[in-house]
Amino acid sequence: MKSLSGKVAVITGASRGIGQACAEIFASKGAKVVVSDLPDTGGEEVVEAIERAGGSARFVACDVTDSEQVAALMSAAVDAFGNLDIGVNNAGIGGAQKPTHDYTLEEWQQVLNVNLTGPFLCMKHQLRHMVRARSGAIVNVASILGAVGFAMAPAYVAAKHGLVGLTKTAALEYSHYGVRINAIGPGFVDTPLIQKIKDDESTYEAIVGAHPIGRIARPEEVARMAAFLASDEASFVTGGYYPVDGGYLAR
């Protein structure tokens, strides 16, 4: 029996990077997957790859900062597959890299809207379905920067710290409904989000050196932790924040 057989999962930001890896790994473990991202970002291709591998998936376009679109996304999952068991709230952006006093209000709000309000809206509408079913699992993709600071990324760090706090609070609120809610904290991962860092050789080497394991993560390594937390194998796990960071936070 595959660990996610019979489960229906909605994964945001799923057209590439960690989200794509989650979609593919969840499907390989038996879940029916709703792949969600902005239009024209490659989500349909992810669905095609899952189906070629024998899995079941649908693409639903969604801007996670729009409450109506998020509500429609969750309803679409139920309409397509009959239930909503798992939410992986992964959609996120890096934002401008500059010190706090140079951050514009617009830049700040953009990062907070996607990285904190987005997961809040996803949880809000996921929980409506899960409370009725009295079961479910939510995995919020935070970051190592949900636990420590990082210069030149004030909005990103603030949003990820906020997401960890939101995760813990919601876990307390919904545990008696049979809903488990956890956050994962990836270290730096080889995804398009860090392409600018990779283009700067000295900065990239410093980032790699901050991970005692000696490299940055592959997306599938993060996705495997998300799959465990979403599965019944983690049935007594809720309210936690779990780094997947190659030792970054152990320094």
Detailed description of the structure:
The protein is an alpha/beta fold and 251 residues long. The chain has one domain (8-242): Rossmann fold, CATH 3.40.50.720. 45% of the residues lie in helices and 15% in strands. The protein has 8 helices and 7 strands; from the N terminus they run βαβαβαβαβαβαααβ. The chain has helices at 17-28, 43-52, 67-81, 105-133, 154-174, 195-199, 201-209, 219-230, and strands spanning 8-11, 32-37, 56-61, 86-89, 136-141, 179-186, 241-244. It has a 7-stranded parallel beta sheet, with helices on both faces. Helix 5 links the parallel strand 5 (136-141) and strand 6 (179-186). Helix 1 packs parallel to helix 2, helix 3 (67-81) packs parallel to helix 4 and helix 4 packs parallel to helix 5 (154-174). The longest helix has 29 residues, at 105-133. The protein is globular. It starts with 7 loop residues before the first strand and ends in a 7-residue tail after the last strand. The mean pLDDT is 97.
